């Protein structure tokens, strides 16, 4: 299993996120499936203490915890027999809920006002303060938050949202404003928590082939909020990471303009990470890019180690690179491949970088 070479050190993570070279290349993920966590830890994840123990054992310098409006408009698929396997079912046959892509819960101003909006307190979970009791010295929390675009289109349904951008712009603006103000209010409180060291803005705006929606829409409704939130984080001494899947070239300057510290996960099929490095050098640190398809899911541990070695050799010598997957670690990633990624980062990522 994982042989962590050292103790957690959030300063290592911070140094790299800010473009520097610490003692070794950090590992970073925003999400790891609980079944994978349990396999690495050697016991089920039944408590906050168990969760902290996993992140520490796996070699991370932080624990990722969620807050804010995350997935507000999920709908339940039809029941199927236990063991059925498609994108609606987990490995054990548990039903997975997905947002309605056609028509959601908010279609007019009346729906917007009638929707049961959470309170700010609802969006600041108690685990963000309780976790401090379990954190080992040197470890902090990175909070996943920031779903403004995703939460807005999920509440309308993606198809309805796309029509509304042109047919009901007042509704779209009001919805973004309502979602963003709630997110910001929760975010402001979280900025005051000492054990929180940063934020991971998880808000997909692109597919592998291109943007989900015209960049001008994001520039109008989304990026001004992000610029405000990133500045709040920086004023509180905390870092901000931008997560979006897909091909982001059309909004790369906007992401930089929001003053994010790092970009995640740089999908290999969408963007070449060395080109991303050339275009963003000195402006964004880079996280991820170890291919979730091959080698993480369908390859061997040896293939995983080889890809980690390549990424470290190409990206880490000048600093500002963190090893991680090209998305997240879902339940279908073989545990041995996940462990191989972590161990390779420890083996090859010691500064000065000597692998070639």
CATH architecture: Alpha-Beta Barrel
- Regions with little confidence, pLDDT below 50 for 5+ residues: 74-89
- Helix run count: 15
Spatial sequence of strands, sheet with the most strands = 1-4-5-6-7-8-9
- The domain tally reads 1
The mean pLDDT is 92
Based on CA inertia axes, which overall geometry fits? globular
- Could you please say which CATH topology applies here? TIM Barrel
- What structural category arises from helix and sheet content? alpha/beta
Number of strands: 9
Determine Rg (CA atoms, Å). 20 Å
Roughly what percent helix? Answer: 40-55%
Distance between the termini: 26 Å
Main sheet summary:
7 strands, parallel
Return the string of H and E elements: HHHEEEHHEHHHEHHEHEHEHHEH
Strand percentage: 5-15%
CATH top level label: Alpha Beta
Structure overview:
It is a single chain. The protein is α/β, with parallel strands linked by helices and 356 residues long. The chain contains 15 helices and nine strands. The protein has a single domain, classed as Alpha-Beta Barrel (TIM Barrel). Helices cover 41% and strands 10% of the residues.
